[in-house]
């Protein structure tokens, strides 16, 4: 795509970044007003690092940047935002104990003499939320009470407030419903019409082809392509990203399903999870599908003891004995592990090393009398770094310096060392590139060949259809239907996902005239 220099809003020249090892080298890139530039590549390729440098969160080791023809050296995210460079990151920048409205306008709360004008704040918040399809949410709701998908939409809405010249979206649709994705795309078109330059980071190539004009591909910290996206097929882009071909078929190897390893019976919690029952056999991958808010994460948390059920039972073991799980510690003792969807908030100690994070769930193996043996801890971490293919400088590297995909591998590696029988995966490939996804899929296959029972929640229907033996569909908190492999279609799964809400809405409609009378 050729464009006159006058249309360049931001440019980077010779940008490099080194932590314990180089992660970016010699990056030359320009952003044009009113265009969407797709930025993609494997996890660890440098996408997030480059975007953080542009957004003021990181300083480059080498190179320079220009914004509207002037030297651009933001010392912080707030400095970048004041100049009109905004970034919506995978790790959300929200305060869970404040309301949606307060988060939206935290830096510019309306009021006088220290008193907040709540009426004005609420009105402004409603207008901001309407831009991203959040009209149904009360702006006075605490952000911590929202699911991850809705929190991400709040973060997007926050960054669209005020003057915006460059908007960086890092995996913006990873946890969004189809309706929310469409709302986001509409907003992107509006921003383009206003002349905003957008950097759209994603591994979903069909989305990139839909919204972007150009694509920049990073591999191992270097730009390998900056071209019109229409010139490349999805297969060509994948080859550029990973340096090898990947098919759309997956061989999980020869497996034999054993006895039932997990039995959930009539589990309930308020209006979130309603009388859900299912079984998972050894060597089986049981997928759970459904819309955001259907109760998928809540169900896993109940099984794991992170939340307490109002009723229902969980049975595990060869003899399928009902067990009392009142906490995650109880679940781990019974051989149940949870790989959470919120790896940064709940799965990792970001300021600690890989060794410390993997050792965290295996203290009995790396400590004695309360003292951690650093050599044993490092050896344990090194084993998982090699087994999982974690890109790092070694066990001592701080987890916050890793890419999202490699952080996820650290979380999974912790539980593989624990050797649990039942593993609950909540969005295991969220924010992970296509190459790393297939690595995770093959890992799941290896676990089933070892006789593990896996429960996988995912927002990606194609992912579930690729890896699962059966798929249960949650809708409005209820398990609507369970499909066997080769007896499902994407249309059937989607129809089941909406069915519970349609039934609920019909019952509410029937009840309304009776209440009125």
UniProtKB/TrEMBL annotation:
<dbReference type="GO" id="GO:0015749">
    <property type="term" value="P:monosaccharide transmembrane transport"/>
</dbReference>
<keyword id="KW-1278">Translocase</keyword>
<dbReference type="InterPro" id="IPR050107">
    <property type="entry name" value="ABC_carbohydrate_import_ATPase"/>
</dbReference>
<feature type="domain" description="ABC transporter">
    <location>
        <begin position="252"/>
        <end position="501"/>
    </location>
</feature>
<dbReference type="InterPro" id="IPR017871">
    <property type="entry name" value="ABC_transporter-like_CS"/>
</dbReference>
<dbReference type="GO" id="GO:0016887">
    <property type="term" value="F:ATP hydrolysis activity"/>
</dbReference>
<keyword id="KW-0813">Transport</keyword>
<dbReference type="InterPro" id="IPR027417">
    <property type="entry name" value="P-loop_NTPase"/>
</dbReference>
<keyword id="KW-1003">Cell membrane</keyword>
<dbReference type="GO" id="GO:0005886">
    <property type="term" value="C:plasma membrane"/>
</dbReference>
<keyword id="KW-0472">Membrane</keyword>
<feature type="domain" description="ABC transporter">
    <location>
        <begin position="1"/>
        <end position="245"/>
    </location>
</feature>
<dbReference type="GO" id="GO:0005524">
    <property type="term" value="F:ATP binding"/>
</dbReference>
<keyword id="KW-0067">ATP-binding</keyword>
<dbReference type="InterPro" id="IPR003593">
    <property type="entry name" value="AAA+_ATPase"/>
</dbReference>
<dbReference type="Pfam" id="PF00005">
    <property type="entry name" value="ABC_tran"/>
</dbReference>
<dbReference type="InterPro" id="IPR003439">
    <property type="entry name" value="ABC_transporter-like_ATP-bd"/>
</dbReference>
<keyword id="KW-0547">Nucleotide-binding</keyword>
<protein>
    <submittedName>
        <fullName>Monosaccharide ABC transporter ATP-binding protein, CUT2 family</fullName>
    </submittedName>
</protein>
<keyword id="KW-0762">Sugar transport</keyword>
<keyword id="KW-0677">Repeat</keyword>
């Amino acid at each position: 795509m050729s464009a006159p220099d006058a249309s360049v809003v931001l440019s980077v020249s010779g940008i490099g970044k080194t932590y314990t090892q180089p992660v970016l080298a010699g990056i030359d890139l320009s952003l044009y007003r009113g265009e969407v530039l797709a930025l993609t590549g494997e996890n660890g390729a440098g996408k997030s690092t480059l975007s953080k440098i542009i957004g003021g969160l990181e300083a480059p080791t080498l190179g320079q940047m220009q914004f509207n023809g002037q030297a651009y050296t933001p010392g912080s995210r707030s400095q970048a935002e004041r100049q009109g460079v905004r970034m919506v990151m995978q790790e959300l920048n929200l305060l869970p104990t404040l309301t949606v409205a307060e988060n939206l306008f935290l830096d510019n709360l309306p009021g006088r003499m220290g008193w907040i004008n709540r009426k004005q704040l609420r009105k402004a918040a409603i207008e901001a939320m309407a831009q991203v399809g959040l009209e149904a949410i009360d702006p006075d709701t605490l952000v911590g009470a929202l699911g991850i998908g809705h929190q991400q939409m709040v973060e997007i809405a926050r960054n669209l407030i005020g003057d915006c010249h460059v908007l960086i979206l890092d995996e913006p649709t990873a946890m969004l419903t189809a309706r929310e994705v469409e709302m986001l795309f509409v907003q992107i078109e509006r921003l383009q019409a206003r002349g905003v330059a957008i950097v759209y980071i994603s591994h979903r190539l069909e989305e990139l082809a839909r919204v972007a004009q150009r694509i920049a591909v990073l591999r191992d910290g270097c730009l390998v392509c900056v071209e019109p996206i229409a010139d490349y097929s999805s297969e060509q882009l994948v080859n550029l990203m990973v340096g090898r071909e990947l098919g759309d078929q997956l061989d999980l190897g020869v497996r034999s399903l054993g006895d039932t390893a997990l039995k959930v019976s009539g589990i309930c919690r308020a209006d979130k999870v309603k009388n859900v029952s299912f079984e998972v056999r050894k060597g089986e991958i049981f997928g759970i599908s459904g819309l955001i808010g259907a109760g998928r994460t809540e169900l896993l948390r109940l099984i794991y003891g992170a939340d307490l059920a109002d009723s229902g039972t969980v049975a595990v073991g060869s003899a399928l004995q009902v067990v009392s799980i009142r906490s995650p510690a109880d679940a781990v003792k019974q051989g149940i592990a949870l790989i959470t969807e919120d790896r940064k908030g709940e799965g990792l100690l970001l300021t600690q090393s890989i060794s410390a994070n993997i050792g965290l769930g295996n203290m009995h193996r790396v400590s004695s009398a309360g003292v951690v043996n650093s050599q044993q801890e490092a050896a344990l971490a090194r084993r998982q770094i090699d087994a999982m293919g974690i890109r790092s400088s070694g066990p001592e590297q701080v987890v916050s310096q890793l890419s999202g995909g490699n952080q996820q591998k650290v979380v999974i590696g912790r539980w593989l060392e624990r050797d649990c029988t039942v593993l609950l995966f909540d969005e295991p490939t969220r924010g992970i590139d296509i190459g790393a996804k297939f690595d995770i899929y093959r890992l799941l296959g290896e676990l089933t060949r070892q006789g593990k029972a896996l429960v996988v929640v995912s927002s990606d229907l194609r992912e579930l259809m690729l890896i699962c033996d059966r798929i249960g569909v949650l809708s409005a908190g209820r398990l609507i239907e369970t499909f066997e492999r080769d007896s499902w279609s994407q249309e059937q799964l989607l129809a089941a996902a909406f069915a519970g809400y349609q039934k609920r809405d019909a019952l509410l409609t029937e009840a309304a005239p009776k209440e009125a009378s």
